Amino acid sequence: MNSPQPNPHRLNRRHFLRVGATGATGVALAAGLGGLTASAFAEANEIPRLPRRRYGRTGLQISALVGATDWSADVIPLAVKAGVNYWHKSQRWNKENFPAAIRSQPRESYHLEITVDRVGGDHMHGHIDEEQHYQFVKNAVARSGVGYYDVFKFHFGYHSVAEAKAEPGVVRAFERLQKEGLVKHLAISQHHYNNIGGDMAFEILNYLMDHSPFEAAQFFYTYGDRKETQDLIALAKQKDFGTIAMKTMGGVGRAASDKKFQALLAEPKFTGSTPGTAMVKWLMNNPNLTAAVIATKSFDQLLENVSAVKAATLGLNDRHALDLLAGYNKGLTCLLCSDCVTSCPEHIGIADIFRYERYALDYHELDRARAEYAALTKNGTACVACGDCLPNCSADINILAKLKQVHNLLG
Ligand code: SF4
Ligand code: SF4
Prior knowledge:
The chain is of the alpha/beta class. It has helices at 13-20, 26-32, 38-44, 76-81, 100-103, 130-144, 161-166, 169-179, 201-211, 227-238, 252-256, 259-265, 275-284, 299-311, 316-329, 350-361, 366-374, 399-410; strands spanning 52-54, 61-63, 65-68, 86-88, 111-116, 149-154, 183-189, 216-220, 242-246, 291-293. The structure holds iron/sulfur cluster (2 copies).
C-alpha cells in the first residue's frame, strides 16, 4: 500500500521553526511557503495548543500566553488556532477592526479584557472617577458590539494601600456594570508608586487579595525578580487570586540584535535555546503563575513562544541562556524593580523612564517610547546627579548616565 502523499501546504513545527529562525515576518514567511497567508497557514497546519490555567477567582480558564490587540492581523488567526483565548486591552477593537478569527468563534469561548485608566491626567496624576469609568466601559461595549467584557481591569492600579481603602470609585463602577451584564470580573494591573510617595505593587496587591472584590492582577515579573514578587505569586495561588506577568522580556530584544551576545550564544552549551524561549519556559515552570503577556511581533515569534510553552521543561541549556542574559543585563537593562526611586530627592520616575527605553530597544517601538517619554511631567533632565539612587540598584546600573542616554534617545 502506498503511503499518503504529503500535503505541500502542511508543514511540521520543526520545519516552521527552521524557517522562522530566519527572523522573517509572518507575511514574508507565508510568501516563502507557497504564497499562503497567515490565516491559510494556520488553517493548513498543526499548531501546538497552549495549555490553559485558572485565572484565580474569575474561574476563567485562560491561555498561558495572553493575546494583545497590537499583534498584527496576520498573527492573530494563528494565535487563535494555538488556543489564545484571553485578549488584553480589547477596547481597542471596534465593530470594524475586531479580528474575524476571534469574532467567528462562539462568544463564550474567548475572553475580552477592557483596561480602564484614571481620568484627568496620566497614571500618576489622574484620578479615579466612578461615573467616567462606568461611561467609558458602557460606550466601549456599544461601540465594539462585543456584548460584554469578561474582565474590567483597573489599569496601572492604585497609588497606595491607603488609596485602595479610601477610594471606592473603581469598584462601584465595576459593580454597576456587572449588574447590567456589561462586565463579569474585576482585575487590576498594578505598578509601583514609590516615586510619588505611594506603595510598591506587591504591597498593594497583598492588601487587595484579602480586602477587596478584585479577583486577579497583572504586574511586572521577570527572571531574577525580587523575592517579594515571587512570594506574592505563591500567596496569590493559595488564595485563588489570578496572576499575569508582564514586562517579562527585559534585554531580550537588544540582546537579539547584539552581535557580541549572539556570538556567545553560539557556544554548544546554549544549543537549542535562546534567552526568549528560555524565559517563556521559566515563566511556565512556575505553577503558581496563571499566564504571561509577551510582546509578539511576528508569526515566527508566536510559534516559538507557543512551542516553548508546550516544551515546558527548563533544560540546562535554557538555564545557561537565562544566566547569559542576566549577565548581559547587569549594568545595562533596568529590571523595573523601582528600588532606586524612593531615594531620589527629585522624585524622578526612573523605572518609568527605563521602561520606555525597553519599548525602544527591546520591542523596537521607538515612536511609542518617544510619545510616552514626551508625556512625562519630569524627565531625565531633572536629575541633579546626586548619586543617592545608585546604592539601591541591584542591577548595577549607572542611573545618572543612563538617564542621559535615554534622554538623548527619546527626548
Ligand atoms: S542621581 Fe539623579 S536620579 Fe539618582 S537620586 Fe539623584 S537626582 Fe535622582
Ligand atoms: S534602575 Fe536599578 S534599582 Fe532602579 S528600577 Fe531599574 S533595576 Fe531597579
